[in-house]
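Subject: mismatched residue count in predicted assembly?

I count 228 residues in my input, but I want to confirm that the predicted structure covers every chain. Input:
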Amino acid sequence: NAGVTQTPKFQVLKTGQSMTLQCAQDMNHEYMSWYRQDPGMGLRLIHYSVGAGITDQGEVPNGYNVSRSTTEDFPLRLLSAAPSQTSVYFCASRYTGQDYGYTFGSGTRLTVV
Amino acid sequence: GENVEQHPSTLSVQEGDSAVIKCTYSDSASNYFPWYKQELGKRPQLIIDIRSNVGEKKDQRIAVTLNKTAKHFSLHITETQPEDSAVYFCAAKLGGGTSYGKLTFGQGTILTVHP
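Triage response: the counts match. Full output below for your records.
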């Protein structure tokens, strides 16, 4: 049981480049989400999914796309990277219908130059 | 949507003292309130949580209290130790509807425990 696995751990992009951050979980969690963490701003929700084929926007969705074709995977796509997207990105998952804490991935530190 | 305010942003205590971090939330429909600890360079880890039908919960040196009327909840750490030094986040989850499962986080508190 690996929990929530994020790749890559570190990434440097040039402005305008695109990339996909990968997130996979092996706990059969229905709910998956992406957060970004910036100093002094806590964790802000980008996108989330309550099951395969269902996604919705969080509070800071602009510049990001997601899809959920399987229960296990929830990739986050940066369409055209901007310096404002420099951040640490965390994927998190949980069972739906229950108030249990989220399991977080180890994070991806992204720098856009 | 939900808004969570967390105070203080930094907290410095001596080893053995108590530490208290407070959060307020805006949406009375929120029904689940977890606290996370994040050590430098690590992922957030759940340390304690409380549901809206409970007023207080304790786990060894850590306790959380919830005041639904005032819409605030607090984390209490007693007999602090240097290894308690970390960033602590509170969060609130709305119950029901299309937003169920979404956690809204506070801005974080940097706790430093001096030996």
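DSSP finds no helices and eleven strands in chain B. Marking this ticket as 'not a bug'.
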